[in-house]
Amino acid sequence: MLDPVSEVLGIQVSGPLPLMAAVEQGLPLMALDRVMHAVAPSDSGFAFRIIPRATLARRRKSFAAARDRAEGRLSAEEGSRLARLASVWAMALDVWGEADAARRFLFEPHPLLHGRPPVDVVLENELGRPVVEGILGRLKYGSAV
Length: 145
Prior knowledge:
Layout: H1 4-9, H2 16-25, H3 29-39, H4 53-66, H5 76-96, H6 99-107, H7 118-124, H8 128-140
Helix pairs in contact: 2-5, 3-5, 5-6, 5-7, 5-8, 7-8
Domain Antitoxin Xre/MbcA/ParS-like toxin-binding: 92-142
Organism: Rhodopila globiformis (Rhodopseudomonas globiformis)
Protein name: Antitoxin Xre/MbcA/ParS-like toxin-binding domain-containing protein
C-alpha cells in the first residue's frame, strides 16, 4: 500500500525511506505537475516556487527533445521542497476532507504563523513542515488552533 505522500506525488514507493531515496535520485517532472494540479490548479506560476521558471523550461525542453530520463527530473533540493508540500497537502486533505477547504487552509494567512499562509511556511525551509503539520494535527484532533 502506498502512503498518502507517494499517492500525491504519483510515484510507486511505500514508506519514508524509499521516498527519501526517490527524492535523492530525482523525482520526475510528472510529480511536480501532479502536485501543482492538485494544490494550485488555477495558478500556472505556482510551480516556480519549487523550481525556477528558466530551469523548468530547460528541463522540459531537454526531456521532450531527447527523452533523457535524467533531464526530466527534479534536483534533490527541488524534490525535497515538493515532497514537503505533498506531505502537508495529504494531511490537509485528510483534515479538511475536500480539496477546496484544504486549499483555503494552505493559502490563507494563519494567526499561529504570524499571519503567513501555511504554504509559504512549508516552502520556505524544512522546519516549516512540522509547524504546519502541528496545526493540522490540532485541527484534526480538536485542540485549539
